[in-house]
């Protein structure tokens, strides 16, 4: 059930918040073993909040727009009373959080109820959600395949129908990559729009947080609550100028991905090709900045307890900590230049379209993908198309392409819809129009667990 429909039924009393939360917790216990998306359940807190909400509704008190909506958070968001692990055991001895992360507080103020923490790459350093401490998160559409990362648990929980709303973070593609591979909607907002208080950092100058949902309308609603900005104002999208990013962003695409992008563009009135210069160097700059900032953040702890880290994460962080200063300075200069390039591009277009990943999710046992005619690491290159765009700090919707009519539904494929800074409302309006047209949106991998009325003997609906 879409998030907004669920909230409406709870507000009206048609559904009991306690029943919804109880069913959600039970569904996770029964079904998450196949996916490994969830690391901790918040039973006591969630059921207490649900009972309080039902009491408010029964008294006729006003409740928020997300009343009773269960949500989960990537395990780098603070939750009061819990240790924030950031996907690691390194932080286990840290004191519990004294308050929720600010964005969690905003969702709770709107009536939503946190029920789970979600799996991730250790310290958000990866594109696969293969975690040495908490295991690998598997793709709900094919559990032999990766869910993507580093917010893989957040994307998989939505794709599996376990939760209608989750929070993740995106430094170089950690929302966009798993959203694409899992066939759900994700938003990397304009950098700085959503507060990072209470969110464990990775690379502070690039980190952004955002939601995952099953529909574009739910994504817009979640962003409204998180940001306080109105996004559901009706907009005429017919006059929008669409730019297709070519060059770097057209290499090694799966044929079905290219066909899906072409179907999307065919529905747009004005389309032009846009070539961004020096994208390979921009992607390299993103690598350098991420490595340097991540390495600097962890250097002291790496000196004290290096063996507590996942070996792959430890090696990346140590390499970043050893970078000399000049490459970092040059990377930051390139970043500033690229932002100007992107701003200039939006003088001629309103939305840029690019693939989110080169193709569908790789198999867990598939170590490489083809890039430029060469076999390269799948895990390191799933962010091929997301990393360069991260440096611009602009809002990006990760949108699943709709399956082609008359063809068997395979694994999901996704695109990035990019807008100028602060233009979330425009790109979300475009996304909703394309979903209504049947060009975007992918079916959920599992039956939604929370749709029964709050009466004895009722049964969940799809």
TrEMBL record:
InterPro entries reported in the protein's UniProt record: Amidase (IPR000120), Amidase_dom (IPR023631), AS_sf (IPR036928), Carboxybiuret_hydro_AtzE (IPR014087)
Protein origin, superkingdom: Bacteria
SUPFAM superfamilies for this protein: Amidase signature (AS) enzymes (SSF75304)
Pfam families: Amidase
Residue ranges occupied by any Amidase domain in the UniProt entry: 20-428
PANTHER family (alphabetical): GLUTAMYL-TRNA(GLN) AMIDOTRANSFERASE (PTHR11895:SF172), TRANSAMIDASE (PTHR11895)
Protein name stated in the entry: AtzE family amidohydrolase
């Amino acid at each position: 059930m879409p998030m907004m429909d669920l909230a409406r039924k709870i507000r009206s009393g048609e559904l009991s918040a306690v029943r919804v939360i109880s069913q959600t917790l039970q569904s996770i216990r029964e079904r998450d073993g196949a996916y490994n998306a969830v690391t901790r359940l918040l039973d006591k807190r969630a059921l207490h909040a649900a009972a309080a909400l039902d009491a408010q509704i029964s008294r006729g008190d006003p409740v928020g727009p997300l009343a009773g909506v269960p949500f989960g958070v990537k395990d780098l968001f603070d939750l009061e009373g819990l240790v924030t692990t950031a996907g690691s055991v390194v932080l286990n001895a840290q004191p519990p959080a004294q308050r929720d992360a600010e964005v969690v507080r905003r969702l709770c103020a709107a009536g939503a109820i946190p029920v789970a923490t979600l799996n991730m790459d250790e310290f958000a350093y990866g594109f696969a959600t293969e975690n040495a401490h908490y295991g690998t998160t598997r793709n709900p559409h094919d559990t032999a395949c990766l869910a993507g990362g580093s917010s893989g648990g957040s994307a998989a929980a939505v794709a599996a129908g376990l939760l209608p709303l989750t929070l993740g973070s995106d430094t170089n593609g950690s929302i966009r990559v798993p959203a694409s591979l899992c066939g759900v909607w994700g938003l990397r907002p304009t950098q700085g729009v959503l507060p990072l208080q209470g969110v464990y950092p990775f690379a502070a100058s690039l980190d952004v947080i955002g939601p995952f949902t099953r529909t574009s309308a739910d994504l817009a609603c979640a962003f409204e609550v998180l940001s306080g900005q109105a996004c559901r104002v009706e907009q005429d999208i017919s006059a929008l100028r669409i730019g297709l990013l070519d060059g770097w962003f057209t290499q090694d695409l799966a044929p079905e991905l290219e066909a899906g992008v072409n179907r999307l563009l065919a529905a747009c009135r004005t389309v032009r090709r846009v070539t961004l210069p020096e994208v390979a160097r921009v992607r390299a700059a993103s690598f350098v900045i991420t490595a340097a900032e991540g390495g600097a953040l962890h250097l002291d702890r790496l000196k004290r307890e290096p063996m507590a880290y996942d070996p792959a994460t430890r090696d990346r962080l140590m390499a970043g900590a050893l970078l000399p200063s000049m490459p970092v300075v040059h990377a930051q200069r390139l970043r500033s230049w690229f932002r100007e390039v992107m701003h200039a591009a939006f003088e001629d277009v309103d939305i840029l379209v690019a693939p989110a990943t080169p193709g569908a999710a790789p198999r867990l046992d598939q170590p490489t993908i083809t890039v430029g005619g060469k076999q390269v690491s799948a895990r390191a290159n799933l962010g091929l198309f997301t990393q360069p765009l991260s440096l611009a700090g602009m809002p990006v919707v990760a949108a699943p392409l709709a399956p082609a009519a008359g063809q068997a539904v395979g694994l999901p494929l996704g695109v990035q819809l990019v807008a100028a800074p602060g233009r979330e409302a425009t790109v979300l309006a475009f996304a909703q129009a394309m979903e209504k047209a049947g060009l975007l949106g992918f079916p959920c991998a599992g039956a939604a667990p929370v749709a029964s009325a709050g009466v004895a003997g009722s049964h969940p609906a799809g």
